[in-house]
Amino acid sequence: MERLIERAAGDLVDSKYAIALTGAGISTESGIPDFRGPQGVWTKNPEAERRAYLGWQRFLEDPKAYWEASLTSRRPGLSGDRERVMPNPGHHALVELEALAILKCVITQNVDALHERAGTKHLLEYHGSGAKLRCVSCNLRFRRDEFDLEKLLREKQLPPRCPECQGVVKSDTVGFGEPIPSDVAHQSLEEAWKCDLMLICGTSAVVYPFANLPRIARQKRTETERRTGTGIYAVESIPAVTIIEVNAEPTPLTEEGISDYLIQGKTGETLPGIVEEVKRLRK
Fold first, then answer.
1. Would you place residue 272 in the very low, low, confident or very high pLDDT band (cuts 50, 70, 90)?
2. What pTM, to 2 d.p., does this model score?
3. Nearest to 168 by CA among 11, 62, 272, 23
4. Per-residue pLDDT tens for 208-226?
5. From residue 167, how far is each of 44, 69, 138, 170, 180 by CA, in Å?
6. Which domains does the chain have, with CATH numbers?
């Protein structure tokens, strides 16, 4: 593993535009359970999964009922639980790589806001954030405390309305069947095309369209001229992006040869090791 950490650090130092993609694996180390693992939220409570699949459709059919159900069935202390969960060394390592001007953007599947709390500046929350609300008409986002949701519930003024366009406001988290917000989708595609290194951290790479981003990056090619044994110069097309996985287990990206190499281990241990090696190389 040490050799791979050194290789990753060298690739990062040599990169011009590195980005990171993160998934549930980076948050489980902060104590947030995944959904479908052995101890996952939906593994233990299939009914919660069923409700999750119906959420977007229910919002479309009746936004007021969606909000009333959300506010009246919310587990007591949920916001407090969210505040008690803290970013872990993996989150902080990505912040350090950004501060070193190596990492240009983090695109995350996670809705826990831990990257934001850790201090990541250029962050795209692909599936939204549980700490925010979003207007479905103009994509304007708000902190949850910008709306007095309990008062709106008491006064029967739900759903909340966007102060800019009067569109209906919902949780920023993206439900099953709900399109990825257009602004985030477009920016994520741009980042995948711009990067020359993609660091993939703690994602199983099976949830689409997020899992398409490494595949899009892999399509990027560059042409190089080489001299053949006969003395003739030939143009060769080679991948233009280095794709590195840091994950507990191999993924479809590993098996399909999308990634260049896998560093198998915990993100909270591997990423700080990469940062220390980057600092050593930069001295």
1. very high
2. 0.90
3. 62
4. 999 999 999 999 887 666 6
5. 36, 20, 7, 10, 17
6. 1-32+87-127+181-283 (3.40.50.1220), 34-84+132-171 (3.30.1600)
Radius of gyration of the chain (CA): 21
Q: Which residues are catalytic?
A: 127
Tokens of residue 11, six digits: 């690739």
For residue 182, give both structure tokens. Answer: 């257009």
**Between the CA of residue 128 and those of 40, 88, 202, what are the distances in Å?**
20, 20, 18
DSSP, residue by residue, the chain: -HHHHHHHHHHHHH-SSEEEEE-HHHHGGGT---SSSTT-HHHH-HHHHHHHHHHHHHHHH-HHHHHHHHHHSPPTTHHHHHHH----HHHHHHHHHHHTT-EEEEEE---S-HHHHHT-SSEEETT--TTEEEETTT--EEEGGGS-HHHHHHTT-PSPB-TTT-PBEEESSPPTTPPPPHHHHHHHHHHHHH-SEEEEES--S-STTTTHHHHHHHH-EEEEEEE-TTS-EEEEEEES-EEEEEESS--HHHHTT-SSEEEES-HHHHHHHHHHHHHHHH-
The two structure tokens encoding residue 68: 């009333």
The pLDDT score that the predictor gives to residue 42 is 62
Q: By the 8 A CB rule, do 90 and 202 touch? A: yes
Q: How confident is the model at residue 80 (pLDDT cuts 50, 70, 90)?
A: very low
**32-60 pLDDT, tens per residue?**
876 655 666 667 777 766 777 788 899 99
- Which position has the token pair 């709106």? 152
